[in-house]
User: Fold this.
Amino acid sequence: MEPSAALAISLPLGIAIAAHGCGIGLGTAVGSALEAIGRQPEASTKILVNMMAGCALIEALTLYALVFAFSLMGKI
Assistant:
């Protein structure tokens, strides 16, 4: 298999895997935060702030994978 063909197959697959993992992580984080707010409504501000910071870090994974894929796309 030629390197350009391997990149053409693996780049979209890598982005899909990263996006899938990000979606699972975000779903778990938001679900847990909503469950925690349901248990302690008075701590909702602190929970939401920490959840949003965590969601930003989780989203960074997909953005890094996208930038990496675009940089390797020039090799095709």
In short: The radius of gyration is 17 Å.
